[in-house]
Structure formats: structure tokens, C-alpha cells
From TrEMBL:
<comment type="similarity">
    <text>Belongs to the D-isomer specific 2-hydroxyacid dehydrogenase family.</text>
</comment>
<dbReference type="Pfam" id="PF19304">
    <property type="entry name" value="PGDH_inter"/>
</dbReference>
<feature type="domain" description="D-3-phosphoglycerate dehydrogenase ASB">
    <location>
        <begin position="325"/>
        <end position="442"/>
    </location>
</feature>
<comment type="function">
    <text>Catalyzes the reversible oxidation of 3-phospho-D-glycerate to 3-phosphonooxypyruvate, the first step of the phosphorylated L-serine biosynthesis pathway. Also catalyzes the reversible oxidation of 2-hydroxyglutarate to 2-oxoglutarate.</text>
</comment>
<dbReference type="InterPro" id="IPR029009">
    <property type="entry name" value="ASB_dom_sf"/>
</dbReference>
<dbReference type="InterPro" id="IPR006140">
    <property type="entry name" value="D-isomer_DH_NAD-bd"/>
</dbReference>
<dbReference type="InterPro" id="IPR002912">
    <property type="entry name" value="ACT_dom"/>
</dbReference>
<dbReference type="GO" id="GO:0006564">
    <property type="term" value="P:L-serine biosynthetic process"/>
</dbReference>
<dbReference type="InterPro" id="IPR029753">
    <property type="entry name" value="D-isomer_DH_CS"/>
</dbReference>
<dbReference type="Pfam" id="PF01842">
    <property type="entry name" value="ACT"/>
</dbReference>
<dbReference type="InterPro" id="IPR045865">
    <property type="entry name" value="ACT-like_dom_sf"/>
</dbReference>
<dbReference type="InterPro" id="IPR006236">
    <property type="entry name" value="PGDH"/>
</dbReference>
<dbReference type="GO" id="GO:0051287">
    <property type="term" value="F:NAD binding"/>
</dbReference>
<dbReference type="InterPro" id="IPR006139">
    <property type="entry name" value="D-isomer_2_OHA_DH_cat_dom"/>
</dbReference>
<feature type="domain" description="D-isomer specific 2-hydroxyacid dehydrogenase catalytic">
    <location>
        <begin position="6"/>
        <end position="314"/>
    </location>
</feature>
<feature type="domain" description="D-isomer specific 2-hydroxyacid dehydrogenase NAD-binding">
    <location>
        <begin position="108"/>
        <end position="282"/>
    </location>
</feature>
<dbReference type="GO" id="GO:0004617">
    <property type="term" value="F:phosphoglycerate dehydrogenase activity"/>
</dbReference>
Length: 527
């Protein structure tokens, strides 16, 4: 088996490359490529490990013809076009906790540096000026810290601030009152936070809701003398308005680790008294970089080698223990989806995926993804289990998952039912022996078959002589039959024949088969 190939395209702790190799991947480390250089090579890779410098745009994704997973060694994924990656079937993962403590500590460091103007005092002292009377600081004890965003990092900042004897008020629409109590913070609305905070620190992602959350208008509502820290994302604070308010003295100090445009090589804020900045260093500690590098490599290798999914932003998680158990189900589910896709005519607007027995004990989402991938492969070549649910949603297909506790005839069963213009059509399959997928029912007829390679599906009247006729026809056309499966509803009623053949069946042979006595339908299939 060829090893999956991974490209590390940003500066990353060497532990990442080591882990990839130990876990069975080939790895190339090429930080600092231009977008054109990346575009030229990305087609070779199954995985792309990045930090924030690599921009994974549509253009790059279009060239990434083998790419299966993008791993962000860090939290923010605003440098990845996730919707487009999803539509291309590429899993996007991040490492949501590896650098949280480090970033929270950076926010606190900046807060303290602002309170005591440490950078300017340091510069002037080292110039030999001994500016003792130029720097009058403020205590943080007893002051109110306004936290915008109380997720992983915000919560850690809150605990550190409480340790510094600050009062913490938090604005976060997703913060429950119970969690606020647990964190020891007061949940408030944004207006209240702006009016009450002596220090404000931001810890939200950059979204349509948070963009410019500290706008000119909102900055105007802050308490005179407020000090502001942004260690989250550029674009949360209106930088031009901040400059004016720093100049007017309304804002007593501001510290930015992140900028609207990065790298920020030029900014009107540079040189403003009481303005401090760092070049997006929030996550830059040895500990955090080792954490995120190890974690991203473990997650990506696990996905590429075993199919395990952890911390994916566009796919449900799947543990390394569950992945091998699900593997045979993926093949079964994809085949069942493909079978209904090939047999059901007309618009598919509803699909239900039922699991019973052992299948009901496993996670349903991957099985659903595989059924949808099989089904939609009839309509699109680039579909896989990652993008299939998105494509189904886009097409307005109503997808239902049903889990039965009941014991059925089979120890495990997956049934796929589609609602078509001609009524509901359902196929079902099980796993035999060591996990061999097997079809056990097709549109209400019990039949046992391996769905593999080229096949021919025939519905005919159950009457003597038919098997001989079809065998003769295929033989006369030089088509060898591999396996032969029969099923019927009632004796003398409708019968179903599923043949595996050694080559695709030409159209004229299909026509001849349709013309045989007693034939109701003939459909060549491919798996
Ligand atoms: N400077 C750095 O180097 C650095 C390092 C790590 C993380 N970050 C950034 O820090 C930010 C926070 O990271 P995290 O791990 O705490 O994320 P998180 O997802 O754990 O927390 C984000 C919080 O923001 C809240 N939120 C979302 N929309 C909001 C809104 N409109 N108003 C108020 N709150 C809102 C969410 O409810 C959530 O609690 C991210 O943008 C991340 O990219 C920066
Ligand atoms: O990789 C970095 O240095 C920055 C990471 C940070 O912005 C993040 O969102 O995790």
C-alpha cells in the first residue's frame, strides 16, 4: 500500500514531521512557499499541515486533486476556505486547545504591560533616560475586565484575571448562566460591558457578527481611560477609530497581537503613545507549538491511515477505536447508496438510512455520509463521504437517519429507502464473516449478492426457461457470468436476477435482454 503524502507548508515544530513518519505517512516540509509554488505541488499530497501563513484558497483547492485533509496547527481557520474544502470533500481539522493557555497568558501579559507601560518604559530606560516620572501606571486589582468571548481562551483569561483580583464581566451570546457562575464571571450584554469595563479583552473568532465588534460607535461607548487588548483576530477592532481615541486620550492604552492586515508592516497605530503590539505571537511558546504540532500530526495521520476523525470542522468526529469497526460498513453503505442511485429513477427528494443490530451501536453520520456518497456518485464524480451531506443539503434532499433497537434476522443491517416518483424503494445489506458486505434485499425481494464490478440487474416473470435464455444470450455475446443470484417475491410472480459479469455489458446486449420473453426491466450496474 502506498503511504499517504503530507506537506507541511508553514513553520512547524519538528515533532509534527516525526509523528507523520512514525504513523506511516511520507512527509515534505516546505515552509514559505508562494501561492504559485504551493499550487504547483499540492496535487501530489493527501494531507496539508498549516499554521496561519498558508492561505488555502479556492485556487489552491482546485489544484489539490488528491487532498483529503487539511490540518491547522492552531485554532483559527480563517485562512482556509472551509465551504469550498467541504464541497471538494476535504476534511478540515484544527487543534482547538493546544495553544489556549499560551494565548490567554499573552493576553494577560499585554494587559499588565498596558497597565504599567512596560515597553515604552523599557525603551527609554535602555536609551539611558531613566524616565521615572514619565510613567504612572494603574493597578489591576479591583478593576473590571470586560471579556468579549468566553470560550476556551476567554475562560482561561477570566480565571487568570480573577487570580489578579479583577472583576470579570463577559459578553458572549453562547455563554450559559450556569457556565458564567462556574467561571465566576458576570454575564452582561455588550452595552453594559462597554460602559463598565476598565480593560477590555477580545476572544472571539472573526465572523460576520464579530467583525468590527469594537467599531467607532462601540469604542465611543467605552469608559474614558479604558485599555483594550486584542489577541484574537484582526478585524474585531476598528483600527482607525482606535488610533483617534488613543490620540484623544479616551482610550488610555491598546495592545494588539493581531491586525486587520497581516503581516502588519505599516499601521497608523505604530508610534502612538500607549500603543503596544506584537506580531501575532499569541500562540508562540515552545509548549504551545509542540502541543499543536503533535496534535495536528496525530489527527491527520489517524485520518489518512485509519479513517479516525478528530476535531474536524466539517465532519463529525470518529474515534480511532470506532474507525476500523466502521470501515466495512462504509463499503456496504456506499454500495447500497450506489445501488439505489443506479436503480431509482426520477427525482430523489427523500432518503432514509436505517440501522439495526450492530450497525445501530455505531456512529450513524459516517454511514449516512457513505450512503449519500454512493448515491450521489451517479450525479457527480467528485463526491465523497465528506462533501456528500453538503451536496445533499444543497440539492434539498431530505435525509433521515433511523436507529432501531430491535433484534432483526441479521446481526447487523443497513437499509436505504428512497422516495421516488414511483413510490418508496428500499435495499438492505449486512456484513458476513469478517466484515464482507452483502446485499440481502432489493426492492422487497430477498436476495444475497456481493455488489462488485460489473453487474446486470433483471426483473422478469418467474417462469421456467428464463435462466437458460439469459445465459444463452450472454454466452452468444461472449460475456462470461461470474456469479448468479436469484430472488423472487412469490412463485410465479416477479423474479429478480443479479449477475456479476467479467466486462461492461454493451448497449445492444442490454437491448437484446430487454427483448427476451418475460423480461420487465434490465439495468447494467457498476460498483
Ligand atoms: N493570537 C493568537 O495567536 C491566537 C492564538 C489562538 C487563538 N486565537 C484566536 O482566539 C480566538 C478565540 O479562540 P478560542 O479558542 O477561545 O475560541 P472558542 O471557540 O473556544 O471561543 C470563542 C468564543 O467566542 C464566542 N462568540 C462567538 N460569536 C460571538 C459574538 N458575536 N459575540 C461574543 N462572543 C461570541 C463563542 O460563543 C465562544 O465562546 C479565535 O479567533 C482564535 O483564532 C488567536
Ligand atoms: O499559528 C500561529 O502562530 C497563530 C495561531 C493562532 O492564530 C490560532 O488561531 O491558533
Amino acid at each position: 500500500m502506498t503511504k499517504p503524502k503530507v506537506l507541511i507548508s508553514d513553520k512547524m515544530d519538528p515533532n509534527a514531521a516525526r509523528i507523520f513518519e512514525e504513523r506511516g505517512c511520507e512527509v515534505d516540509v516546505k515552509p514559505g512557499m508562494t501561492p504559485d509554488e504551493l499550487k504547483a505541488v499540492i496535487g501530489e499530497y493527501d494531507g496539508l499541515a498549516i499554521r496561519s501563513a498558508t492561505k488555502v484558497t479556492r485556487d489552491i483547492l482546485d489544484a489539490a486533486t488528491n487532498l483529503k485533509v487539511i490540518g491547522r496547527a492552531g485554532i483559527g481557520v480563517d485562512n482556509v476556505d472551509i465551504p469550498y474544502a467541504s464541497s471538494k470533500g476535504v476534511v478540515v481539522m484544527n487543534t482547538p486547545f493546544g495553544n489556549s493557555i499560551t494565548t490567554a497568558e499573552h493576553a494577560i501579559a499585554l494587559l499588565m504591560a498596558l497597565a504599567r507601560q512596560i515597553p515604552a518604559a523599557d525603551t527609554q530606560t535602555q536609551r539611558g533616560e531613566w524616565p521615572k516620572s514619565a510613567f504612572m501606571g494603574v493597578e489591576v486589582t479591583g478593576k473590571t475586565l470586560g471579556l468579549i468571548g468566553a470560550g476556551n481562551i476567554g475562560s482561561i483569561v477570566a480565571s487568570r484575571a480573577l487570580g489578579l483580583k479583577m472583576k470579570v464581566v463577559a459578553f458572549d451570546p453562547f455563554l450559559t448562566p450556569e457556565r458564567a457562575i462556574e467561571l465566576g464571571v458576570e454575564k452582561v450584554d455588550l452595552e453594559t460591558l462597554l460602559a463598565r469595563a476598565d480593560f477590555i479583552t477580545l476572544h472571539t473568532p472573526l465572523t460576520d457578527q464579530t467583525r468590527n465588534i469594537l467599531s467607532r460607535e462601540n469604542l465611543g461607548k467605552t469608559k474614558p481611560g479604558v485599555r483594550i487588548v486584542n489577541c484574537a483576530r484582526g478585524g474585531l477592532v476598528d483600527e482607525a477609530a482606535l488610533k483617534e481615541l488613543l490620540d484623544s486620550g479616551h482610550v488610555a492604552g491598546a495592545a494588539l497581537d493581531v491586525f486587520q492586515t497581516e503581516p502588519a508592516k505599516d499601521s497608523p497605530l505604530f508610534g502612538t503613545p500607549n500603543f503596544i503590539c506584537t506580531p501575532h505571537l499569541g500562540a508562540s511558546t515552545t509548549e504551545a507549538q509542540v502541543n499543536v504540532a503533535l496534535q495536528v500530526a496525530e489527527q491527520m495521520a489517524d485520518y489518512l491511515v485509519n479513517g479516525g476523525v478528530t476535531n474536524a470542522l466539517n465532519m463529525p468526529s470518529l474515534s480511532a477505536e470506532e474507525a476500523p469497526k466502521l470501515k466495512p460498513y462504509m463499503a456496504l453503505a456506499e454500495n447500497l447508496g450506489s445501488l439505489v442511485g443506479q436503480l431509482a429513477h426520477g427525482n430523489l427528494d427523500k432518503i432514509s438510512i436505517e440501522r439495526e443490530g450492530h450497525a445501530a451501536e455505531l456512529s450513524g453520520k459516517p454511514i449516512t455520509g457513505a450512503v449519500l456518497a454512493g448515491l450521489m456518485r451517479e450525479y457527480s464524480d467528485s463526491v465523497n463521504m465528506v462533501n456528500a451531506p453538503f451536496l445533499a443539503k444543497e440539492r434539498g434532499i431530505d435525509v433521515r437517519e433511523v436507529r432501531h433497537d430491535r433484534e432483526g434476522v441479521y446481526h447487523t443491517l443497513v437499509r436505504v429507502t428512497v422516495a421516488t416518483e414511483a413510490g418508496d424503494r428500499s435495499v438492505a445489506g449486512t456484513l458476513f464473516g469478517a466484515g464482507a458486505p452483502r446485499l440481502v434485499e432489493i426492492f422487497g425481494v430477498a436476495i444475497e449478492a456481493d455488489l462488485k464490478g460489473n453487474m446486470l440487474y433483471i426483473v422478469n416473470e418467474d417462469a421456467p426457461g428464463f435462466i437458460g435464455r439469459i445465459g444463452t444470450l450472454l454466452g452468444q455475446n461472449g460475456i462470461n457470468i461470474g456469479t448468479f443470484h436469484l430472488g423472487r417475491r412469490d412463485a410465479g410472480g416477479e423474479a429478480v436476477l443479479l449477475l456479476s459479469v467479467d466486462q461492461p455489458i454493451p448497449d445492444d446486449v442490454v437491448k437484446q435482454a430487454c427483448a427476451l420473453e418475460g423480461v420487465r426491466m434490465v439495468k447494467p450496474l457498476a460498483f
